[in-house]
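Tokens for chain A. Residues wanted.
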């Protein structure tokens, strides 16, 4: 998913669900991104979440994930 950083650029964010240790999941996701993706396609942020927010029909609520990153960056709309 994409989120806007403090400079106004849209950057990629990756959210992983940690089934074991959160640090291990984040390290593994970062490692896979480095091995498999060219630098310009890698996510700027990798965050672990307990579960993905979903609608009643099961679709991922991407706006809530975007809000989470933007709140973390201190951006206020």
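Reply:
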């Amino acid at each position: 998913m994409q989120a806007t950083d403090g400079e106004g650029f849209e950057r990629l964010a990756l959210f992983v669900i940690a089934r074991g240790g959160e640090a291990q999941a984040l390290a593994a996701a970062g490692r896979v991104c480095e091995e498999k993706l060219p630098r310009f396609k890698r996510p700027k942020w990798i965050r672990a979440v307990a579960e993905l927010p979903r609608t009643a029909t099961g679709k991922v609520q991407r706006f809530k994930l975007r809000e989470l990153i933007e709140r973390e960056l201190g951006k206020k709309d």
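The longest strand covers residues 10-17. Residues 2-73 form a domain with the GMP Synthetase; Chain A, domain 3 fold (CATH 3.30.300.30).
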